[in-house]
Amino acid sequence: MTVRLGIAHVPTHAPETLRTVATAAEDAGLDDLWVWEDCFKQSGLASASAALAWTDRIRVGIGLLPVPLRSTAITAMEIATLARTFPGRFVPAVGHGVQSWMAQSGVRVDSPLTLLREHVTALRALLDGEEVTTSGRYVHLDAVRLEWPPTTPVSLWTGGVGPRTLALTGELADGLTLANALTPDDVRDAVATAREGASAVGRELPDVHATLVVATGARARERLAAELPRWGADPQRGIGAAGGADEIAAGVRALADAGATAVAIQPTADEPDLAELAAFLGREVRPRLADRAGRSVGAW
């Protein structure tokens, strides 16, 4: 089994804690750092930019950028700038966004699926250095071409939970980023739907990012049970992992067996030491994820 092991910096922790998490994750030898963009909390692109600048090796992903909040041209400019500045280390993901938040922001659309299709199609072409002219239902571009497109190919991911969005991900995207509070069976079903969408157009979906909500230390089970409702999850459904390195490694393996190629550990809101959690993941959990040949997870 080969799965990338990372940590998620979620908006239950203040933006100023990001530097601690990013540098600790890199020092611990983790593969990935995933940042979020939740309304009206933290900017995903600002967080990713800072984390990339503070580190040298770790891959930084955004899960995800809500497409109604940004024009396609601006999104392409922002992604291309980071991709050129930190080649091979940045993974952008886009999606619908939470519809109630889009309504609050005054950008909710009648057909989120149509917008996502138009946005991803045009964004992919722009990042590939093409000149794009399109007049869709929502995306309108007139002879737009990036002056500084990425110098290496950018892996463009999308995220979502509904079957049509998952199928669209398989059809158009390079990877799938999933919601944070899912069981292994939820992940398995989502991956199957996305891969069916990919197969229908003769392509593959190589990457899937899943999240494991984790509590360690004293009262770990109680803390996990208290955390999950924050994300609309039932603690009785077998979501997340509580305990020591063995329990967390088992949770990562379960998500990998369900189809995840990258798993990010999400700390609870009351996690007292984010740097130590990152160190613990590298020191104690990562070795337990070695494959049968004895190789460590997350090889590039």
TrEMBL record:
GO function terms (MF aspect): oxidoreductase activity, acting on paired donors, with incorporation or reduction of molecular oxygen
In terms of Gene3D superfamilies, this protein maps to:
Luciferase-like domain (3.20.20.30)
* Any one Pfam family match given in the protein's UniProt record, by short name: Bac_luciferase
**Taxonomically, which superkingdom?**
Bacteria
Q: Which SUPFAM superfamilies match?
A: Bacterial luciferase-like (SSF51679)
InterPro entries, alphabetized: F420-G6PD/mer, Luciferase-like_dom, Luciferase-like_sf
UniProt keywords, alphabetically: Oxidoreductase
Q: Which residues form the Luciferase-like domain?
A: 14-260
Protein known as: LLM class flavin-dependent oxidoreductase
Q: What is the lineage of its organism?
A: Bacteria, Bacillati, Actinomycetota, Actinomycetes, Micrococcales
